[in-house]
Amino acid sequence: KPNIKIFSGSSHQDLSQKIADRLGLELGKVVTKKLSNQETCVEIGESVQGEDVYIVQSGCGEINDNLMELLIMINACKIASAGRVTAVIPCFPYARQDKRGESRAPISAKLVADMLSTAGADHIITMDLHASQIQGFFDIPVDNLCAEPAVLKWIKEQISDWRSCTIVSPDAGEVKRATSIADRLNVDFALIHKVRKKAGEVDGMVLVGDVKYRVAILVDDMADTCGTICHAADKLLSAGATRVYAILTHGIFSGPAVTRINSAGFEAVVVTNTVPQEDKMKHCSKIQVIDISMILAEAIRRIHSGKSVSYLFSHVPL
C-alpha cells in the first residue's frame, strides 16, 4: 500500500507541522526558493514514486507567490510519478471572486480551480469555502471541510452562559452557517442586514432579532479588513447585548483590521489557524485561535484509507 507523504509549502509551516505530528509522520523534504529574478524554484528532496502525496499550502500571505509555489510543487510530484497528489488548501485563494459582479469581471476562483487541475492535482481538501459552489468548478473530488464542530466545542467550553446566547449572522450570505450553529446549540438567531454604498463600504446596518441582555456571537467564514464585523459589534452593543464575540474560520486581517478589532467592543475575536495568526496576536490580545489541524489530519487519514470524510462535519476528532 502506498505511504502518505506530506509536504509543506512556505505559506503556513506551523499548520503543516501540526498535521504531520497528528499523523505521526515527518514532513517531506522540499526546498522552495526564489531565484534572483523572483521565479519560484522547488526541489522535492525524496522519492514520491507511487506514493499518496499531500501538499499543504494555505491561500494567505503573499497569495500569488504561494499559489504559484503550490502549482509547481503539485507538478513536481506529478512528474516524479506520485500515485496521487492531494492539495490541502485550508484557506482557498480567490474564493471571493466566485461569480460575476460586473459585466466584464473574471470568475477568478474558477481560473484557480483550472490551474490546480492542470498542474496535476487529483484531489482538493479545503475548509469553509467562501462559496460552496466553487466545488463545482473542479472536475476532481473536492472535500470542503467544516470548522463548525470545532467552533461548537469552543463555544461550549469557553462561554459559560452559552445557553442564553444569540448567534448572529453579520450579513445575508452567512445565514446558513449561523442558523446551523444556532440550531445545534438550540439557541436564538439574529441577522444584520447591511446596506452598502459600494463594495467594501457599508452605509448602514439593520438588526433583525433580539440581543438585549444576551451574549451575542457573530459567526462568519472570513474577515479581511474587519469593517463589517466591527460595525456589527457596535450595533449589537447598542442594541443591548451584554458581550460580543466573533468566531471566524479565516482571519485574514489585512490593512486596518487589527486596529479596528482593538478599538471595537469585542470580548474576543476567535479564528481558526487556517491562516497563521502569531504576528496578529502580538498586536491584538482579543484574537484567540482554535487549532483545526486535527480535522485536516483526520481527513487525510480517511481519504488515504478510502473512507468518507462526511463524519467530520459533525464530530471533532480528538
From TrEMBL:
<dbReference type="GO" id="GO:0016301">
    <property type="term" value="F:kinase activity"/>
</dbReference>
<dbReference type="GO" id="GO:0002189">
    <property type="term" value="C:ribose phosphate diphosphokinase complex"/>
</dbReference>
<keyword id="KW-0547">Nucleotide-binding</keyword>
<dbReference type="GO" id="GO:0000287">
    <property type="term" value="F:magnesium ion binding"/>
</dbReference>
<comment type="pathway">
    <text>Metabolic intermediate biosynthesis; 5-phospho-alpha-D-ribose 1-diphosphate biosynthesis; 5-phospho-alpha-D-ribose 1-diphosphate from D-ribose 5-phosphate (route I): step 1/1.</text>
</comment>
<dbReference type="InterPro" id="IPR005946">
    <property type="entry name" value="Rib-P_diPkinase"/>
</dbReference>
<keyword id="KW-0808">Transferase</keyword>
<dbReference type="InterPro" id="IPR029057">
    <property type="entry name" value="PRTase-like"/>
</dbReference>
<feature type="domain" description="Ribose-phosphate pyrophosphokinase N-terminal">
    <location>
        <begin position="4"/>
        <end position="120"/>
    </location>
</feature>
<dbReference type="InterPro" id="IPR029099">
    <property type="entry name" value="Pribosyltran_N"/>
</dbReference>
<dbReference type="GO" id="GO:0009156">
    <property type="term" value="P:ribonucleoside monophosphate biosynthetic process"/>
</dbReference>
<keyword id="KW-0460">Magnesium</keyword>
<comment type="function">
    <text>Catalyzes the synthesis of phosphoribosylpyrophosphate (PRPP) that is essential for nucleotide synthesis.</text>
</comment>
<dbReference type="GO" id="GO:0006164">
    <property type="term" value="P:purine nucleotide biosynthetic process"/>
</dbReference>
<dbReference type="InterPro" id="IPR000842">
    <property type="entry name" value="PRib_PP_synth_CS"/>
</dbReference>
<protein>
    <recommendedName>
        <fullName>Ribose-phosphate pyrophosphokinase 1</fullName>
        <ecNumber>2.7.6.1</ecNumber>
    </recommendedName>
</protein>
<keyword id="KW-0418">Kinase</keyword>
<dbReference type="InterPro" id="IPR000836">
    <property type="entry name" value="PRTase_dom"/>
</dbReference>
<dbReference type="GO" id="GO:0005524">
    <property type="term" value="F:ATP binding"/>
</dbReference>
<dbReference type="GO" id="GO:0005737">
    <property type="term" value="C:cytoplasm"/>
</dbReference>
<comment type="similarity">
    <text>Belongs to the ribose-phosphate pyrophosphokinase family.</text>
</comment>
<dbReference type="GO" id="GO:0006015">
    <property type="term" value="P:5-phosphoribose 1-diphosphate biosynthetic process"/>
</dbReference>
<keyword id="KW-0479">Metal-binding</keyword>
<dbReference type="Pfam" id="PF14572">
    <property type="entry name" value="Pribosyl_synth"/>
</dbReference>
<dbReference type="GO" id="GO:0004749">
    <property type="term" value="F:ribose phosphate diphosphokinase activity"/>
</dbReference>
<keyword id="KW-0067">ATP-binding</keyword>
<dbReference type="Pfam" id="PF13793">
    <property type="entry name" value="Pribosyltran_N"/>
</dbReference>
<comment type="subunit">
    <text>Homodimer. The active form is probably a hexamer composed of 3 homodimers.</text>
</comment>
<keyword id="KW-0545">Nucleotide biosynthesis</keyword>
